[in-house]
Write a structure and sequence with these properties.
This protein has 499 residues and is α+β, with helices and mostly antiparallel strands. 44% of the residues lie in helices and 7% in strands. The longest helix is centred in the middle third of the chain and has 48 residues.
């Protein structure tokens, strides 16, 4: 009989591939486990009969309980899906849906039960802690105070470094931020210009392709609408006042250098018109300009129509405000009957307006009024001039308070009012106001004056015109001082003629 060998020709040794176990060792472990279970069952039974709760007995190798050094993670499982064994939804023993404790093989459903479980004696015993804390000694207390003091000193040093930044560094940082903002805006403008250039090129290419297909008689929708409208109305184009002025100047100079020919006098005159028209003046865009007399007349007509339109609108609005009974606390009229562009207004502040009204902030107690005979101070009456530009309503008016000037965070010392709706309709270079907050032609003197009265009830201290008044108003709101109310009281009394 041949000797057994492996597939590689080497002699085979032990061919038993199954794992073998020491039966005596595992039998001893089983007996030990059964003994512990019997002891634990007996202890549980005795605790139950005594009306107490069973806790795992100490083995002598446990450590003292100390405070947790890390924060409990109670929100990491929010919105997540867990895969759990079948049948684990009943009871708390075993792994289930919720907070699972591996040391205790225990599952709870909410965070309150989880916190109670990890602080319980049974859990502390299972993780190897006694549930008792070590009594702190004097050295421990001193060490804790020292660590807290060092932490506080470190925080103060950090604050000192932040607050001790040099003014030049702050200015340099601000300049850098502004430069970055300007670069961002320039990049945005370049991107928009590039997009517009690409769109115009595509539109021109499409128009050229259509003209190749259909000939030169191609009319793009909306391309000649403005020209048709101008031809129907009888003038050559829309433009700003500056452009009209420049063209008029060039036309007048051209007419002075090329005077018209003298008209024939009498029936038998031999003077005749030239067979060819005189050379037309040309603009810098190489286009023929209209006759000087026509352009001058068009300019005068435009200016007259603009002035006449604003005059008619202001007269109608003034008459409406003088006859309306729905605008309390506002009286208006003309400073001079021959100037519709300058109004004189009187703002009579209501008594319930804080600071500037009478019965809200400066009121006396009923007993004091009855004993002394002193009546409440009414609200202030402030006079102002409302000056309109000739371009109204395209440009906003200007409101200037007369003496006594109200002591207000949004009123300059010379009486000029600072309010968003009276700022020109252009982009704010500081980025504080949006275009919707500035002047719009839909505004009227009525809405302007109502906004001014509401400004007395709620000053805007974020961008004040009178910095000192804004600072005292903030101190008044915080209860630090009452200088603001005192100075406003003097201003209100002066407006009523009491001082």
């Amino acid at each position: 009989m041949s000797k057994q060998s492996s597939a590689y020709g080497t002699p085979a040794g032990d061919t038993d591939f199954r794992k073998t176990r020491n039966l005596d060792e595992y039998a001893a472990k089983a007996k030990e486990r059964e003994a512990k279970e019997r002891e634990e069952g007996k202890a549980r039974y005795e605790a139950k009969m005594a009306g107490k709760r069973y806790y795992k007995p100490l083995e002598g190798n446990e450590s003292l309980t100390s405070a947790r050094a890390a924060t409990l993670d109670l929100s990491s499982q929010v919105g997540k899906t867990q895969i759990i064994p079948a049948g684990s939804g009943v009871g708390r023993r075993g792994r289930g849906a919720g907070f699972y404790c591996e040391a205790c093989d225990w599952t709870v459903k909410d965070n309150l039960q989880w916190v109670e479980h990890i602080n319980s004696v049974s859990h502390l015993r299972n993780v190897g802690q006694t549930g008792e804390v070590r009594r702190a000694t004097v050295d421990d207390v001193l060490a804790r105070i020292g660590s807290a003091w060092e932490r506080r000193l470190a925080e103060k040093d950090a604050e000192r470094q932040v607050t001790s930044t040099d003014l030049k560094e702050r200015l340099a940082l601000r300049e850098k931020e502004e430069e970055e903002e300007r670069d961002r805006r320039r990049k945005k403008k370049r991107d928009l210009a590039d997009k517009k250039r690409v769109a115009d090129a595509e539109a021109a290419a499409a128009l050229e392709a259509s003209r190749k297909d259909y000939g030169e008689d191609v009319r793009v929708e909306g391309e000649h609408d403005e020209d048709d409208m101008m031809a129907m109305m009888g003038f050559s184009g829309f433009g700003t006042t500056k452009n009209l002025h420049d063209r008029t100047t060039r036309f007048i100079a051209s007419s002075a250098s090329h005077p018209p020919a003298a008209r024939p006098q009498g029936k038998d005159s031999t003077t005749r018109r030239p067979s060819t028209p005189p050379p037309q003046p040309r603009s810098r865009f190489a286009r023929a300009l209209p006759h000087p007399s026509t352009s001058t007349a068009s300019l005068c007509f435009t200016l007259i129509m603009t002035s006449a339109g604003s005059t008619t609108l202001l007269r109608r609005q003034l008459k409406q405000m003088q006859t309306s009974t729905d605008i309390p606390g506002i009286s208006c009229g003309l400073v001079s009957d021959d100037n519709i562009y300058q109004w004189e207004v009187m703002l009579m502040i209501s008594d319930d307006v804080k600071f500037y009204g009478g019965n809200c902030h400066f009121s006396l107690a009923p007993s004091i009024r009855s004993n002394t005979g002193i009546a409440n101070t009414p609200g202030g009456n402030f006079r102002a001039f409302l000056t309109f530009p000739h371009e109204y309503p395209l440009l906003p008016p200007k409101l200037t308070f007369q003496d006594p000037v109200p002591y207000h965070p949004n009123v300059y010392e010379n009486g000029d009012l600072c309010i968003s709706i009276l700022h020109p309709p252009e982009e704010d270079r500081y980025g504080y106001e949006s275009a919707a907050e500035r002047w719009s032609p839909v505004q009227s003197p009525e809405t302007i004056l109502l906004s001014v009265i509401s400004l007395f009830a709620g000053p805007n201290d974020e961008s004040p015109a009178n910095v000192e008044a804004a600072r005292e108003w903030r101190d008044q709101q915080a209860g630090v001082s009452k200088n603001f109310s005192r100075r406003v009281r003097q201003c209100v009394r002066a407006s009523l003629g009491e001082d």
